[in-house]
């Protein structure tokens, strides 16, 4: 194979897989329009939803305006991986060497299998019959082109991949996980609307204007291999193996262990100047069962990418709809099945020191979690809700930082975010001028004007201004809020809250 040619690949694609998996998980019939949202935007939608005008990237409000009966799901990669494991296993019954690109797409080299089954057309037909869900198959030179061929159920003749790609929209470069939205937008503004127009540029022109990321996209648009081949075989010591006692039988525990292994795996590759593009995940159960899956990646994996694929794979193994192991996993092995030169992951000149510092900090946080547990290091996520404590959610370091509720949705009665939000309730007493506790009447009024606040059994602090109370409801319980300004007009504004069935007030937030 020459340096610029791409290997012949077959891709099996299950359209709208996140929607298919979500409907299967929730028991929603496929006859209803549905969409999956992340960050209040559509990331996948069913054909029925598209027929009503719903599109990828559309805001939730716009999507529901076009399709009022739209069934809404949140994005859950673990759910997608869990249900896709049965599809990958079904394909593996026909062809060996199946590699998962992401939940919804599997790829495999086509040469050997096509010869065995009597041609590419016959192989494609067998795979479509084998898989129990709607799917499409494409064959072309290279993973990128084969994926686009699968979107069109096309079998591209050898050597004609560039011709197949040329008329396609330049936006095809921005496949999920590729992070090329800005590059594609720039190319469109420069008048390069098709892959062929971009491919017509010389490599020198692309490198000088768009850098290494543009060069890779240019190779894809030209029908070439994703990157020149690397003839170095990964040394055996790059394989990372870990034994477990007790065995791993829960996804959350496996995901936590996977983060630690991923950090060590990535460090070993970096020491050799390599990056992984095909990751082998091999496991052995307590009963001696051997579990195997290879993940193929268009872009070199970083430590987070490795950890994600470990978590997704355990979702499929431990919670999948078929072929679950009969015992917990006692050994996990990560193997770099294919590597590229480490420059594929090198940082840009601008911000290099900061990015290296961030990477070192991330490794330190994973180390702390390994010593103290996953909850020892958490990061805040801005969520949807009316009150400050509802809008701030802490997630363990390394977990997906995505909102559970839509932050941009309309939340009637939502308060501005305080400068400080307490993760644990801080008890306070609210007193009137006579020193009596301020109560809430049946009409949701205060029994007397607040005159002082006692914070955590400290000395009374005078109230120079107050507002409220306001009735609200959270977690199925009625509550009231009260705002007070302490210690003079220049003092802090404090947001207090209490449940109607509990006389104790607590501090919800402090405005500096």
Describe the structure.
- With 512 residues, the protein is of the alpha+beta class.
- It is built from 15 helices and 19 strands.
- An 8-stranded mixed beta sheet has the order 7-1-6-5-10-9-11-8, sandwiched between helices. The chain has a 6-stranded antiparallel β-barrel with strand order 14-15-16-17-18-19.
- Helix 4 packs across helix 13 (303-319).
- The protein is elongated.
- The protein starts with 7 loop residues before the first strand and ends with a strand.
- The model is unreliable at 344-352 (pLDDT under 50).
How is this fold's topology laid out?
Elements: E1 8-13, H1 17-26, E2 34-38, E3 41-45, H2 47-51, H3 60-66, E4 71-74, H4 77-92, E5 99-102, E6 105-109, H5 111-117, H6 120-130, E7 136-141, H7 143-151, H8 161-165, H9 181-189, H10 195-199, H11 203-221, E8 240-248, H12 251-271, E9 274-285, E10 290-296, H13 303-319, E11 329-341, H14 352-372, E12 378-382, H15 388-391, E13 392-396, E14 420-431, E15 452-455, E16 460-474, E17 477-486, E18 493-499, E19 505-511
Condensed summary:
This protein is 32% helix and 28% strand. With 512 residues, it is of the alpha+beta class.
Low-confidence residue ranges: 344-352
Distance between the termini: 65 Å
Average pLDDT level: 83
Q: Total number of helical segments? A: 15
Largest sheet: 8 strands, mixed
What order do the strands of the largest sheet run in, or round the barrel if closed? Answer: 7-1-6-5-10-9-11-8
**Proportion in helices:** 25-40%
Number of β-strand runs: 19
